[in-house]
Amino acid sequence: MKPGIARRLTVEAAAILVAAGALGLAFNALSPRGIAITRPLTLRELDERYLTAEETRARFDAGQTIFLDVRRAKLFGGGHIAGALNLPAEEFTKRFAEFAPMLPRETEIVIYCDSRRCELSRQVADLLTQLGYRSLKIFYHGWDEWSQHGWPTEK
């Protein structure tokens, strides 16, 4: 390829990329569902299933929600949200059938694990979604934050 043609193609490709970027930014700025560029994303923007500690506590107080702890049984035995069920994430496929009768599809289920660093609650929520559950929430900060607040727990 001749040097002049390669340079022209490079300039044209760069121009197309700049124009596409400008159009994307303009569309994003005008769209009501645009992605936040100048501020950090909120939990809800990352995943609409995420709950804050206060939202989780309100659901606990209302008494209409099932809490599902997906940590290992040993951690659950050391303390958990009062009334929570324990279905460890690594045992989900083996043990779901025994828990299914305790998890009605029409009841909201809040799933939690240790903390925001723990992805197990999201993984179990995804598995339950595949099984047809629709009313699922994830307590993002999990057991660590719940216990730090001194809210109702059991051992």
**Low-pLDDT runs:** none
Element-level helix/strand string: HHEHEHEEHEHEHE
Oligomer: single chain
Shape: elongated
Structural write-up:
The protein has 155 residues and is an alpha/beta fold. It has two domains: 1-39; 43-154, Rhodanese-like domain (Oxidized Rhodanese, domain 1). The chain is built from seven helices and seven strands, in the order ααβαβαββαβαβαβ. The strands form two sheets. It has a five-stranded parallel beta sheet with strand order 1-6-5-2-4. The mean pLDDT is 89.
Question: Which key terms come to mind for this protein?
Answer:
Oxidized Rhodanese, domain 1; 155 residues; single chain; 7 helices; two-stranded antiparallel sheet; elongated
Note the topology.
Blueprint (H helix, E strand, L loop, with lengths): L2 H28 L12 H4 L3 E2 L1 H10 L3 E4 L3 H6 L1 E2 L3 E2 L5 H8 L9 E4 L7 H11 L5 E4 L2 H8 L3 E2 L1
Parallel strand pairs: 1-6, 2-4, 2-5, 5-6
Antiparallel strand pairs: 3-7
Question: What would a concise description of this structure say?
Answer:
With 155 residues, the chain is of the alpha/beta class. The chain has seven helices and seven strands; from the N terminus they run ααβαβαββαβαβαβ. The longest helix has 28 residues, at 3-30.
